[in-house]
Design a protein that fits this description.
Shape: elongated
Low-confidence stretches: 112-119, 133-138
CATH topology of one domain: Arc Repressor Mutant, subunit A
Order of helices and strands: HHHHEEHEHHHHHEEH
Protein name: Helix-turn-helix domain-containing protein
Strand order of the largest sheet: 1-2-3
Radius of gyration: 35 Å
Organism: Streptomyces netropsis (Streptoverticillium netropsis)
CATH architecture of one domain: Orthogonal Bundle
Number of strands: 5
Largest sheet: 3 strands, antiparallel
Length: about 300
C-alpha cells in the first residue's frame, strides 16, 4: 500500500498510536477522545457537547464514554456544593490513569509515570478538569434502553414469582438490565442468569437481582466484534408481491422471475386446461355432426 503523509505545521494535535490502535476502544470512543484532547485548555466543553459536535448519536456516545472510563482515559466525580447544586467534574487524559492517579492529577500532583530513557524528565500532559453546573440535584441521564430493561425484568418476574419486584425496585434495576441488552445479551440469557440456581427462600428479591445483574454482567463486545457483526437480512428481502387477485397483499419468493404466486399460477393453469378441454369437446362434437351429414347425403 502506498501512503502520502506530510507533517502539519499548524492546527494539529499529537495523539499516540496507543489511542488510535487501541483494541478495546470503538471508533466512536477514539473520535470522542481525540476530539476532546484537541480542544484548547481554556475550553469548557463537556463530553456530551463534544459528542454532539462530532456527530456521535446518544447510544453510541454512552457506549463510547463507558469504554473510555473502563480504560482509564475518563474519570468523573459528582459533587454537591454548599448551596445544593450538583457539579460534574470530568478529567480527560491522553493516557490511561488509575483512580488514585486521577485524583492526584486533579489536585495538581504529578501522577506516577516511568522516567524517559533519554533526556530530562518532563511533566506529562494528563488532560484537563472540566466543570459543568447542571442545576440542583440533577440526576444522571437515563439509560437509552432503560424501558426495555424494565420490561425484561417484568418478563422474568412473570416466569419466576420469587423474583417479583416492586415498581420502585424495577425503576432502580432497569439501567443494569438495559446494560445487559446493550452488550448484546438476549432475554433468554438474562432470564437464565437471574433464575438459575435460586435458593428456596429469597428474603430480598431486589438485592438478589442486583447482585446477579452486576456479578454476571457480560463483557462489552470488542471493536473487532462490533465490526464483524452484520445485521441479518429481513425475511421479506427477496420476496415479491403477487399480481393476482387477492383480498390482501400476498408475498411470495420467486424462483425464476415469476409475477404470480403458486396458487394463482395453479388456478391459471386449471383455467387454461378447462378452456382447452372445452375447445376439444366442441371440435369433437362438430366432427360428429359433419360425419352424420355426410352419411345422410350418401343415402
Amino acid at each position: 500500500m502506498l501512503k502520502h503523509a506530510s507533517a502539519p505545521t499548524r492546527f494539529f494535535t499529537q495523539v499516540s498510536n496507543e489511542i488510535i490502535r487501541h483494541p478495546r476502544l470503538s471508533a466512536e470512543a477514539v473520535r470522542l477522545l481525540t476530539w476532546q484532547l484537541s480542544l484548547p485548555d481554556s475550553a469548557d466543553v463537556s463530553l456530551s457537547e463534544t459528542a454532539h459536535r462530532a456527530g456521535i448519536k446518544k447510544t453510541a456516545f454512552i457506549r463510547a464514554k463507558r469504554e473510555l472510563i473502563a480504560e482509564g482515559y475518563v474519570h468523573e466525580w459528582r459533587e454537591q456544593g454548599a448551596r445544593g447544586r450538583w457539579v460534574t467534574v470530568q478529567l480527560i487524559s491522553d493516557g490511561p490513569l488509575t483512580a488514585e492517579e486521577a485524583k492526584a492529577s486533579r489536585k495538581g500532583a504529578r501522577p506516577t509515570a516511568p522516567v524517559p530513557a533519554v533526556g530530562e524528565p518532563t511533566r506529562p500532559s494528563v488532560g484537563r478538569s472540566q466543570e459543568k453546573t447542571t442545576g440542583a440535584k440533577t440526576p444522571h441521564p437515563p439509560h437509552p434502553l432503560a424501558e426495555r430493561g424494565a420490561q425484561a425484568l417484568v418478563a422474568v418476574a412473570r416466569g419466576e414469582r420469587r423474583l417479583r419486584l416492586a415498581p420502585r425496585d424495577i425503576a432502580q434495576l432497569a439501567p443494569l438490565a438495559a446494560e445487559w441488552l446493550l452488550r448484546g445479551a438476549t432475554l433468554r440469557e438474562l432470564r437464565e442468569a437471574l433464575t438459575s440456581g435460586l435458593p428456596d427462600r429469597i428474603n430480598s428479591p431486589a438485592g438478589l437481582t442486583r447482585d446477579r445483574l452486576v456479578r454476571k454482567m457480560p463483557e462489552p463486545p470488542s471493536f473487532t466484534d462490533q465490526r464483524a457483526a452484520t445485521p441479518a437480512a429481513p425475511r421479506v428481502a427477496d420476496m415479491r408481491e403477487c399480481r393476482g387477485d387477492h383480498t390482501h397483499p400476498c408475498l411470495f419468493r420467486p424462483v425464476d422471475g415469476e409475477t404470480l404466486c403458486r396458487a394463482c399460477r395453479q388456478e391459471q393453469a386449471e383455467e387454461a386446461q378447462d378452456d382447452t378441454s372445452g375447445a376439444i369437446g366442441a371440435a369433437l362434437r362438430g366432427g360428429s355432426l359433419v360425419r352424420a351429414a355426410l352419411r345422410g347425403g350418401q343415402r
